[in-house]
Amino acid sequence: MFFPVGDDQVENGYKPYVSYTLLTLSILVFMYQLTLPLDACSNFMRTFGSIPTEILAGQDFYTLFTNMFLHGGFMHIVGNMLFLWVFADNIEAIIGNVAFLFFYIAGGLAASAAHILFNMTSNIPTIGASGAIAAVLGAYIILFPKSQVRIRFLLFKPFKMTAILFLGIWFIQNLFSGLGSIGPASAQSGGVAWWAHIGGFVFGVVAGLIIKRSPKKNLV
Predict the structure, then answer these.
(1) 212-218, long-range: CB within 8 Å, 24+ apart, which pairs?
(2) Given this model, what pLDDT does residue 8 score?
(3) Which phi and psi angles does 70 have, rounded to 5°?
(4) Fold entry, domain 2-213
């Protein structure tokens, strides 16, 4: 498994308060999940996770927001929080705290919409910040394509890869997995909401193009 552990695109002096707050809230919610008995945790996931059939029936719209702060295990939250830590601060530095909060939420909603579109009959709760974070990745690949991302593979020494290559590979992998999940034979998608990742990323790319065209941006 390859994980990003840093990048060289640092916006000096800017405090990404929203990114840090989102990261902290996700960790606190996960710590709360760990205190729950198995049955109670399952009920918690069903109550605050986003279930496509319920959303399409006009129920529990609040879960489109709450699902972004739930995670299904240590690897799930560690992976998501690493991506959020590495990539979100620079997007927030470019567009500002308030705009980034709206961007993050909108990215999560776009991700949920894409997931629901391809899983209309699913009654499985969708949880995780992956879709919203995918929107961050989509914006990053447009705004900082030449940024050097430090990658770690297991315990080997970290190596660098350009953002456009690393995130491009990430998107292609998700796209093929999403296409492979279509159809009754792959209805469960291995437990991964691939189309949420794809939808969030595409939203981020579009947002990144809009941001890049606006004045006063000093981008690489």
Answers:
(1) 212/142, 212/143, 217/94, 217/143
(2) 79
(3) -105, 150
(4) Rhomboid-like fold (1.20.1540)
Q: Spell out the domain ranges in the chain.
A: 2-213
Is pLDDT of 188 > 60? no
- Decide if 24 contacts 31 (C-beta within 8 A): no
Digit-coded pLDDT (tens) for 34-75: 999 999 999 999 999 999 999 999 999 999 999 999 998 999
Distance CA 210, CA 77 (A): 30
Distance CA(198)–CA(12), nearest Å, equals: 31
User: Which amino acid, 14?
Assistant: Y
- CA 50 to chain centroid: 15
Backbone angles phi and psi of 28, in degrees to 5: -65, -40
pTM over 0.85, yes/no: yes
DSSP secondary structure letters along 84-130: HHHHHHHHHHHH-HHHHHHHHHHHHHHHHHHHHHH-TT--SPB--SH
Whether residue 32 contacts residue 77, with contact meaning beta carbons closer than 8 Å, is answered with: no
Write the Ramachandran bin of 180: left for phi over 0, alpha for psi from -120 to 50, otherwise beta: alpha
